[in-house]
Amino acid sequence: MGLEVQHIAFLINPFCSKRTKLYAHWVEDQTKLHAKGALKLTMFFKDWPSSLQAFSQVWVLGGDGTYNFFANAYPNCQIPVAFFKGGTGNDFYWKLYGNVTREEHLGIILRAKSQAVDAGMCNGQLFLNGVGMGLEGEVLKSMNAIRAIGGLIGYFLAAIPQLFLFKSFRIRMCLETEWIERQVFLCMVFNSSRAGGGFHFVPHASIWDNQLDVLLCEPLSIFKRIWYLPKIQQGKHEHISFLHFQQAKQITIQADRELKAQIDGELIVSEKFEFHVLPSHFMVIVP
């Protein structure tokens, strides 16, 4: 009886760097070496397939923006998904795999243990990581600094000017059926826990709990904004009195003005943001 070969679609960020392309080919070579003919890898650098029906797994190489593009291009994907690190922030990758070497990570992927993870929906768009309204959207306008320098340092450089300039805003928020109204400096809804290349905004958020996590920050002086930024980055802020954490499956946020927002590193603009959780939506290969 012949060996059953699994056909894998390997989707790579079309705008990836030469270094990421080399990594993709390393993955291809190592897979051939270790899978011993059991896996057939088809690489897509530019034109991703219109359907994944012909494949038994899909591997995605890029950053949080690429993962977001994948989730919205294949919102009903039923086959196991593996994520490979190839971005500047790599926050959702970290949530799944932590700080492992590329050899350790590939070993995890080849073992192919899968588990269902939640996703979120905001204004009709899927997200895996989270949505930051207001300040986060303004920081995204400085994305060139983040992309050029990368990760945490780039995020700090983009965020610091906005800590001086950004003005708080008023929201009406509905959690399930309960409405509240307040003035906020930060307003975030997360499926996962980390964004911005290493900011642990909601440290205990889980991608397996069938809930979305809300972080609200009261208006702050410029001194407090700067003083507490490193604490938020490290995830040492859950006890701070002006920060409020809540969970819900369905959330509506109505702002008093049009806001820029980042959704997994991609920009959207609106006055109203409607969220709901998508429980156990994607099967993901995990450790």
UniProtKB/TrEMBL annotation:
Q: Which UniProt keywords apply?
A: ATP-binding, Kinase, Membrane, Nucleotide-binding, Transferase, Transmembrane, Transmembrane helix
Q: Does the keyword Kinase apply?
A: yes
Q: What class of enzyme is it?
A: transferase
**Does this UniProt record's set of keywords contain RNA-binding?**
no
A Pfam family of this chain: YegS_C
Locate the coiled-coil region(s) and give their ranges: none
User: What InterPro entries does this protein's entry cite?
Assistant: ATP-NAD_kinase_N, Diacylglycerol_kinase_cat_dom, Lipid_Phosphate_FormReg, NAD/diacylglycerol_kinase_sf, YegS/DAGK_C
> The DAGKc domain covers which part of the protein?
54-121
Q: What EC number is given for this enzyme?
A: 2.7.1.107
Q: Which GO terms describe its molecular function?
A: ATP binding; ATP-dependent diacylglycerol kinase activity
Domain YegS/DAGK C-terminal, chain residue ranges per copy: 131-285
Residue spans crossing the bilayer: 145-166
Superkingdom is: Bacteria
What this protein is called in its record is Diacylglycerol kinase (ATP)
Q: What is the lineage of its organism?
A: Bacteria, Pseudomonadati, Bacteroidota, Cytophagia, Cytophagales
